[in-house]
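dude i think i finally got it to work??
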Amino acid sequence: MDSKLGYKPRNLIAPDSLSAEHLEEVEALLAALDANEDVQNPLPAWAAETTPFAPAAN
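look at this
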């Protein structure tokens, strides 16, 4: 038996709605979280499933 605890965001964000500067900040934050060994599966709340960080559909 296997189980996972997860979070489903209520407010999804379209990446194209962010300015280039804000998008860079988000990408830098995700890179920093990914580099931290205590953080597992950091995913932003993107509205589009085609982004490279989008989780697999269940």
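The radius of gyration is 13 Å.
im so relieved honestly
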